[in-house]
Amino acid sequence: MQKKGTILLILYCLIALLPSGVAYLSWVSTKSFMYELGRNIAFVALMIIALQFFLASRLHEIESPFGFDVVIRFHRYMGIFATVLLLCHPLLLAVGGHGWHLIYGLQLPWFIWFGKVALLLLVVNILLSLYQTTLSVKFERWRLIHDILGPTILILIFFHSWFAGNDLRLDIMKILWIIIFGFTLAVYMFHRFIRPKLLKNNPYRVSDVKTEADDVWTIKLKPADGSSVFNYAPGQFQFITFYRDRQLPVEEHHWTISSSPAQKNYISSTIKALGDFTSTIGQTRVGDTASVQGPFGRFSYLYHPEEKNLVFLAGGIGITPLMSMLRHMRDTKSNHMVVLIYGNEDEHQIIFREELSQIETEGYPKLNVFHVLHKPPAKWTGETGYIDKEKIQKFGGEKLHEKIFYVCGPPPMVGSIIKSLKQLGVPDRQIRMEVFSFLD
């Protein structure tokens, strides 16, 4: 996977530089250095914007070497980088001899205005993505705006670049431009319309709805045609769109897979009511259908088969990917040694408590479970407070710097635990985590 990831990164850089390379080899410009710099950074920015559609399209060949959380954050940072380049583009052209009327003038060709509008929409798109939570824009509304602005910006950029200057005077550049923008729009159409339709036509069916704890349910899904579920690694996640009628909302959300991949006839996600949509999960019924797309992510012990001494640190619903791993270890009679330190607000919020105890008793894997409650009941004899440096030292065992730590839970808890682990001398390479909130 590391080799494949390196190849993809090199390919990304080559594609981003492709138009500039073709333009350079095709003619020798007599323009000033600043003008040429402004033109070439625009070429690079346009290619980055085109590649954004590929990064966000959940293509397995792109996602699998890195994990979806890494890919989507790279997508975000490259979007910011492309915007900065395009903000510099007109300034450099003006300095390079094109004239400052390009910046403030009103009597400009229509294709220049297309470029200005595209740049404005790009800035709006970036700001909405960066400050979605601050602006109290709900995720589904943000996603709709993002999905409208993306192709709109791409089309405006295409016409601007096609007619502005002499950059596309050569047939080879025109052909390259048509291929780039045509293929990019095709990927967008596949991701947003064609694939969702195909998934809906091959649905999964809800076979069980189980209450796990306060406002937490496990939804078990089976392929409607009776086939086996897709292959996945324990700890990965999936995108689900429920179709439940009864005037319940139809939205796509990502949830961790909590079942074991050793179970081939069903797949399950354990979901906590954390918002408007998830508060309706308890109304899901057996027989409802869903579109399921997966798997995604690299948060799994199977990607590191040589590591046998593990410490799982979980908070609340963050137990789900770790539970999938523990179930898989149980099903495969694994000899891993695992310490689970599991934090919750109170006793009623502990998820999978009985099953964890049963796995601990059976001995596959060699599991030791320690519960930590912030608000324990009067008769509680276990640990209290939060998962901190002292509790990790107490329960993690000797030679912490030699163990592998899997951390999953609310972002503040994860941040605090990572800080504690570093204070204890645990190297970054031995800390595994995955960020499930893609707009953070």
Topology of helices and strands:
Blueprint: H1 2-26, H2 33-55, H3 60-63, H4 68-98, H5 101-104, H6 110-130, H7 139-163, H8 171-201, E1 204-213, E2 216-223, E3 237-243, E4 252-256, E5 267-272, E6 289-296, E7 309-315, H9 319-331, E8 337-344, H10 353-362, E9 366-373, E10 383-384, H11 389-396, E11 404-408, H12 411-423, E12 431-433
Parallel strand pairs: 7-8, 7-11, 8-9, 9-10, 11-12
Antiparallel strand pairs: 1-2, 1-6, 2-5, 3-4, 3-6
Strand order in the sheet with the most strands: 4-3-6-1-2-5
Report the order of strands and helices. Answer: HHHHHHHHEEEEEEEHEHEEHEHE
The helix tally amounts to: 12
Low-confidence stretches: none
Q: Name the shape in a single word.
A: elongated
Summary, kept brief:
The protein is an alpha/beta fold and 440 residues long. Helices cover 47% and strands 18% of the residues. It folds into three domains: 2-200, Four Helix Bundle (Hemerythrin (Met), subunit A) (Up-down Bundle); 204-296, Translation factors (Elongation Factor Tu (Ef-tu), domain 3, Beta Barrel), CATH 2.40.30.10; 305-433, 3-Layer(aba) Sandwich (Rossmann fold).
